[in-house]
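Run log, item B.
One chain of 267 residues. Sequence copied directly from the ordering sheet:
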Amino acid sequence: MHFDSNIKFLRGRKKLTQDQLSIALGINRSTLNNYENGISGPSIQSLVLLSDYFHVAIDTLLRVDLAKLRESQLYELEHGQDVFLKGSNLRVMATTVDRQNRDNIELVSEKAKAGYTCGFSDPEYISELPVFQLPFLSPERKYRTFQISGDSMLPIPDGAWITGEFVQDWNEIESGKLYVVLTLNEGLVFKQLKNELAEHGHLQLISLNPAYKPYQLGATEIREVWKFVHYISREVAETPLTDNQVAMQLKILTEEIGALKRKFESQ
C-alpha cells in the first residue's frame, strides 16, 4: 500500500502545508500527519474526502506509487484519465524516459514503420528506437516523431518528420486538424481527420493533396492517434497557388505565347 507516501506526494504537488490541507478537508492536522507517516490508516470517510479533493481514485491512492509516475502520466491522472476510474477506456502506451524521468520523444523512421505497426505496445521494441528531447514542448504531454512518405499531404513534403502529441481520448479528435494514425491494416498514415466516431463509428481521413480521395476508417481499425504539433524537413514547402495566382500566370503565359507568335509572323 502506498497511501501514506501518496498523500504527502500529492500535497507537495499542490504546494500545500498540512495545516492548509487539513482545513480544506475539514479534518485535524494531527490526523493528517498520522496518515502521512503511516501511524494510522484512513477511515472510509477520509478516503472519499482525499479522493475527491485530489481527483484520484481510491484504488490509485492505495495501490499505485505516484512518485514513480512520469509527469505526463500524472497530468493525465489528475485530469480524469485514472485507470481505476476509466477502466478499459484507458489506452496504455509503451514509452521511454531520460535520466531525469522525463518522457523521451521517440523517432520512428520510414524503415522502422513496419516494425512499429506490430511493436507499438511492446516496451522492448520502443526502447530500441532513437530518442531526443525538445525543450519547448510541454513535459505534461507525450510526443513521438514519425517520418512520412509520399505526396498525399503536400505541401508537407515526402520524408518529413512529423511530431505528434498522444491522444488518449479519441472523442477529443478535432475535425479539420492533422493527425498521425496507426491503423490495423495500413500501418501509419498522416491525414486530416473528420471525427465521426460518435455518430457513425469511424473517422474520415482526408489528404491535403486533392488528387487523393478521402476514405473512412472504423474505430476497430485504429490503434493509436497522435495530434500534429510540427514537422521538420530538409525541403522548403511550396505554398499552393491561389486561383488568382493561377489566373495571373495563365495570363502572362498567354501574353508571352502571343508575343512569340507575332514575332514569327513578322519574320
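Observations after the first pass:
- Confidence is low (pLDDT under 50) at residues 85-90.
- The CA atoms of residues 220 and 240 lie 35 Å apart.
Flagged for discussion on Thursday.
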